């Protein structure tokens, strides 16, 4: 950064006729670089804007104003439609399909699933990470290695047998069926937390032991508070992953009462008539599905951005 | 050390002598702490992995019992044009996806690294990655719509003519590959960015004093020092890329014809639409082997590059 402006800044200005205060000449390389970065940022942001713009449009007016950067015939109708707040006549009038959809319900289901998975997975993985990082027992490293090998198995490979298992347990179309496979552990979460637990200072722990604290007390009162930052990061990542998962809930949670947002979006898309799709409704629904994660990220995202790196891998 | 303090209670409970204590360490406590994760691991990772291999040797339609058929599924696979097609389509997808994504992400990472330290910009760049695949797929499905999609409006306006992005056999896979480049480029760029921050600043200062241009520095300093990181990023993204499913499932469902029937989608269809579980399991075994091979090959590359940064 400091380097980039160096050469023109020091040599350039003095050569020019000196009527004005010496001015830095434009560094064209930097201008081009900034332009490229801005173009990439626009490409990144534009689809989000377009999602918002379309969701605020009247579906009937979209065809006439397909290229307009502003919402076509601004209305909240699309949101009312997908949240089940519009009557069939209102929905049809704005180009909806008239089929009843209730994204409030799917929103609730997604919140239930993502919350339960996050709490269970992070807590149980923290316990396991404690056993791997802070306790000594025979075979520890071998077991840890076995856990890690699960990272190599492609998810679809375990998905088929897991589906059979969940079906045999009679848990199809229940929340339990959706959350169980990821509720207890993922290899990544154990690995991620163990890395941090290994690095914690032993002295405080020993002092607590001398004071007679047991392992449970040390885990809850010392380890968890000391590792609050990585635990928060992992929780955010787990929540987002659980929220965005599609294939598993598609297989085991088709029914409405447990249908999560991603599955609901797929259903909504396949129900929309081929000839005149309800684009505004579809975009309103995708916005509803995307918004909670974006809000979570806006509040806590700084931590996530800074934590992306190789700490979790190397 | 920790063991020295606790034994009193443990010794009373199990009557253990200190030698035994040393050998088993905190085993009892460890078992308690490990129990939930070990349960999850055994039931939902270890057991299904073994069962998956077994299933691949059976014929199983979800009803009744699995019938052992030996290697019949694998023999069938060799003569199945749809399987080979799915493999071809998947590889095509991976090549386009990873090729474009790596170049764009590298450019983005270097631009951010040389121009700004703003966390906000890095956060913006990460945004597409946070949104579900399904959401991303639908947004682009709309933006690339033949009739009303904004991209086709622009193409039409420029005079290039409309493109049936998801509807044509030639365009479908490149389109899906590029849509996923859009979702993943920011995340990949941040991984590379983390690698860039590991390159010491003085290397750049020194080469600037030697009169190197930014362009020159990129090719002679950044890229060579970044090689091990790039290898790691490639391993992760290639393996992830093979698992393309969500986007296909919500947009094209394998079509037009078989142009986007990628391997994940083919397995999914076989198992859950045609209830041909044994055959689906056999194809996932093959996928498992392919991914293992890819990982090993790439790890070799990584090891080859490791010396650079040390």
First-residue to last-residue Cα separation of chain B: 35 Å
Number of helices of chain B: 15
The CATH level-2 architecture of the largest domain in chain B is identified as: Orthogonal Bundle
Distance between the termini of chain A: 28 Å
Count of DSSP strands of chain B: 2
Give the C-level CATH assignment of the largest domain in chain B.
Answer: Mainly Alpha
Q: Might you state the CATH topology name of one domain in chain A?
A: MetI-like fold
Helix and strand string of chain B, N-terminal first?
HHHHEEHHHHHHHHHHH
Radius of gyration of chain A: 27 Å
Compute the number of strand runs of chain A.
Answer: 0
Report on the structure:
Chain A has 314 residues and is an all-alpha fold. Chain A is 69% helix and 0% strand. Chain A has a domain at 116-201 and 229-262: MetI-like (MetI-like fold). Chain A contains 16 helices and no strands. In chain A, helix 6 (103-134) packs parallel to helix 9, helix 11 (202-210) runs antiparallel to helix 12 and helix 13 packs antiparallel against helix 16. The two termini of chain A are 28 Å apart. The model of chain A is unreliable at 1-18 (pLDDT under 50). Chain B has 310 residues and is mostly helical. Chain B has two domains: 2-46, no CATH class; 79-309, MetI-like (MetI-like fold), CATH 1.10.3720.10. Chain B is 75% helix and 1% strand. Chain B has helices spanning 2-5, 7-14, 18-24, 27-55, 72-78, 81-115, 119-130, 133-143, 150-158, 169-197, 201-209, 214-242, 246-250, 263-272, 277-305; strands at 58-59, 67-68. The chains are: A mainly alpha (314), B mainly alpha (310). Chains A and B meet through helix 2, helix 6, helix 7, helix 8 and helix 9 of A and helix 1, helix 4, helix 6, helix 7 and helix 8 of B.
Descriptive terms for the model:
heterodimer; A: 314 residues; mainly alpha; MetI-like fold; 69% helix; disordered N terminus; B: 310 residues; 2 domains; two-stranded antiparallel ribbon; 15 helices; MetI-like_sf (chain B); cell membrane (chain B)
